[in-house]
Amino acid sequence: MEMDHLGIAVRKLDNALPIWERALATRGSPPEVVESQRVRVSFLSVGEPHMELLEPISPESPIARFLEKRGEGIHHVAMRVPDLAVKLEELRAAQVRLIDEVPRKGARGRLVAFAHPSSFGGVLTEFVQPTDGKE
Ligand code: ZN
Hints:
- By secondary structure, this protein is α+β, with helices and mostly antiparallel strands.
- It has helices at about 15-25, 60-70, 85-95, and strands at about 1-10, 30-35, 40-45, 50-55, 75-80, 105, 110-115, 125-130.
- It has a single domain (about 1-130), classed as Roll (2,3-Dihydroxybiphenyl 1,2-Dioxygenase, domain 1), CATH 3.10.180.
- The chain is built from three helices and eight strands, in the order βαβββαβαβββ.
- Strands 2-3-4-1-5-8-7-6 form an eight-stranded mixed β-sheet.
- It is globular and about 45 Å long.
């Protein structure tokens, strides 16, 4: 298992993305809406892990609630696993509190599931299964 990305909550992706692109001298992926999370995201690559900038697209988005409470900043860490269904079984066996009991569709067409911060030292943790075994 490797770290896949760090998720960073931003208020306005169109403002934040150019700043990050300039600072890191790289290009973000074209912004993509993830309906299940009510967010718009872009990934920046400077090697691994990647950075995922997340902007809420509605007040009901978990990111909107995060921004309200904590402001902009690191929202979650994501670990890459070869088989998410197997990993969820392992996490359940390890008494990890899951937010997603079953994999669901995340950004970049990948399957994702979130575990509760109470099981990971206060850090919201996402598990990501790459599509077709590629990045
Ligand atoms: Zn993520």
